[in-house]
Amino acid sequence: MSKWNLTNLKRNGDNLRIFIVEFTFLLIVVYIIIPDFVLRCIGIGSWKKQNTLGVAITFDDGPHPDYTPKVLDILERYKVPATFFVVGENAAAYPELIKEIQGQGHRLGIHCQQHICSWFLNPWETWSKWDEGVATLESLTGQKVELIRPPWGVFNMALWLWLRHRKMKVVLWNVEGFDWLTQRSPEQITKRVLRKTTAGSIVLLHDAGGQPGAPKNTICALESICRKIAVEKKLPFVSLDLTKNGLEASPACRWSWRTCRFVQTFCRSKYTSPITRRL
Predict the structure, then answer these.
(1) Contact at 8 Å (CB) between 172 and 43?
(2) Are 26 and 147 in contact (CB under 8 A)?
(3) Is the distance from CB of 46 to CB of 170 less than 8 angstroms?
(4) Whole-angstrom Cα distance, residue 138 to residue 84?
(5) What is the rounded distance in angstroms from the CA atom of residue 96 to the CA atom of residue 93?
């Protein structure tokens, strides 16, 4: 083989590698980075705060036969409403806990059928696992599922399209105790939650999952959180409210007028954007 042919083969090989790298990068940007940035970082299409002056407590990863009943006992003692984002396979394993959560007047949402990061799911797996999770919870409660929270709060493009197609409401959070870490003491969890909580906050805690034994610290911290938010912060606990004056409120309504104007100018749009029309 001539030197010229070897040079061409090397050049073609280099071009192929460059193409593969560029295509992979573009795929990651479109499939993961863009939907994650829009839904999680900016908050368009999701709720990080709720529309009342109170505080909404939410729990992820349950139910768990050891921890969830203890959480429910504390919530009942302090008359605190909560929303539980349950994993479908856990809900199917402990249907009596789902009935107990429902019977005590708490809200339920789905946290996917399995606790898997959306970044590692292809489009078919994404739709299948979320549809399965919704079907599991609806079969146990007899009620339509409206609220979802993805594991770790991350998204991919397929999940974004699924949300729009199924008309689901995505609930994230703006206060997190990092209680899924075993080394987080009840005092540290309580201190962080209290420091971050304001009117309209959505607080994220866990009644299962995380590192081994971590929910024990959550349970120890929960009683203090329930007491101190009411006494020290003088804020009421409320059921998760994503409506405004009885009407459905878009997450975009939380954007300021200046932000909407900036987006409209940046995009050089000549039409009135849905965001601006809602303000």
Answers:
(1) yes
(2) no
(3) yes
(4) 14
(5) 9
Average pLDDT over residues 148-153: 95
Torsion sign across C-alpha atoms 32, 38, 43, 45 = negative
Q: Which residues are catalytic?
A: 60, 206
Full-model pTM: 0.82
- Beta strands per DSSP E along the chain: 46-47, 56-60, 82-86, 107-110, 147-148, 169-171, 175-176, 202-206, 243-244, 247-248
- In contact, 62 and 208? CB cutoff 8 Å: yes
- In what order do the strands lie in the sheet containing 175-176? 46-47, 169-171, 147-148, 107-110, 82-86, 56-60, 202-206, 175-176
Tell me which residue of 199, 219, 197 sits closest to 208, measured CA to CA.
Answer: 219
**Whole-angstrom distance, CA of residue 273 vs CA of residue 267:** 10
Give the burial string for 109-126 (b: 16+ CB within 10 Å, else e): bbbbbebbebeebeeeeb
Tokens 């959180």 correspond to 225
Question: pLDDT digit string (tens) for 7-59?
Answer: 665 666 667 777 688 778 887 888 999 998 998 888 888 999 988 889 999 99
Burial 44-58, CB ≥16 within 10 A → b, else e: bbbbbbbbbebbbbb
DSSP 30-43: IIIIHHHIIIIII-
What CATH class has 46-244?
alpha beta
Q: Where along the chain do the CATH 3.20.20.370 domains lie?
A: 46-244
pLDDT tens digits for range 90-118? 999 999 999 999 999 999 999 999 999 99
Supply φ then ψ for residue 189, to 5 degrees: -60, -50
